[in-house]
Amino acid sequence: RSKSTFLARGVPPDMLLAEIMGRQSGLCGGVGGEIHAADISRGIFGSTGIVGGALPIALGAAFKQMYHQTGGIAVCGFGDGATTQGSFHESLNLAALWNLPLVFICENNFFSEMTPLHKEMKEVRIAHKAQAYGMPGRDVDGYDLDAVHGVLTEAADLARNGGGPSLIEVKTYRWHGHYEGDPELYRDPAETLKWRARDPVRTLRDRLKSQAVISAAGLLAIEQDVEERLSQAVHAAQASPFPSSHSLTRQVYADPRAVPGGEEP
Fold first, then answer.
1. Of the candidates 75, 70, 87, the residue with the CA atom closest to the CA atom of residue 151
2. Rounded CA separation 64/73 (Å)
3. Helix (H, G, I), strand (E, B) or coil at 189
4. Residue 180 CA to chain centroid, in angstroms?
5. Helix (H) / strand (E) containing 237
6. Model confidence pLDDT, tens digit, residues 124-167
7. Alpha-carbon distances, residue 54 vs 30, 76, 91, 264 (angstroms)
């Protein structure tokens, strides 16, 4: 359900925000909402409200790449809570059995809703679960951009070159509660402050300046540009109307005319 994935794949911020707000100009016409968005044109086959629900879908996407020998791969992201679901284990098993070009990325933020990691699984080293399925398993500090890039590049190259799937555990931390107003009684506030002090965006900014990759003025220009683009996106999304009642009957069933031999409805 990571919105950063949509932005990284090139989805315009105004379309993403409009979808979250349930507006007509949204990515899915406002009917997908905050969780069930998709953009097939950009290779995003959909986020889902079902924990672990994206893993079986990723199998199909990876199988298509292998079957048609496109040289492409599939990448599937999910949280630590999904690794306790049957879909996780079934998907890793089939991906390994079929040697699919697939990279599984577990964003481990140490909490499944309000349940700490050690209270939902005996083996908290999620990357180690890959051993049971005969695939590589790596863990990486999610606050280290270079480390994440390196590990994911290796996994992607392996998949593209016929080496099969990998499981990557990206260790991160959820700064906020599971929902707005969450009292967060299940964790120590000092722990959250400790992780906030390692803010990866600020760390990267400081490193780029110290290595003279970019000046303070250059970083400020980037931040101002981002703020302006986001402000424009918010206004554009808010100006878009809500879906009409006619949209209720759209995209409910497949159009038989789009299928060879199909008939008019």
1. 75
2. 9
3. helix
4. 21
5. helix 216-239
6. 999 999 999 999 999 999 999 999 999 999 999 999 999 999 99
7. 21, 7, 10, 32
Beta bridge partners of 116: 111
For residue 125, give the DSSP letter: -
Rounded-to-integer distance, Cα 235 and Cα 253, Å: 33
DSSP 244: P
Q: What is the chain's mean pLDDT, rounded?
A: 92
Rg (CA), the chain: 21
DSSP 243: P
- 103 close to 156: Cβ distance less than 8 angstroms: yes
Q: How far apart are CA 41 and CA 45, in angstroms?
A: 9
Instruction: Give the tokens for residue 222.
Output: 């980037």
Q: Which amino acid is at 49?
A: G
Residue 148 identity (one-letter amino acid): V
The pair phi, psi for residue 219, each rounded to 5°, is -65, -40
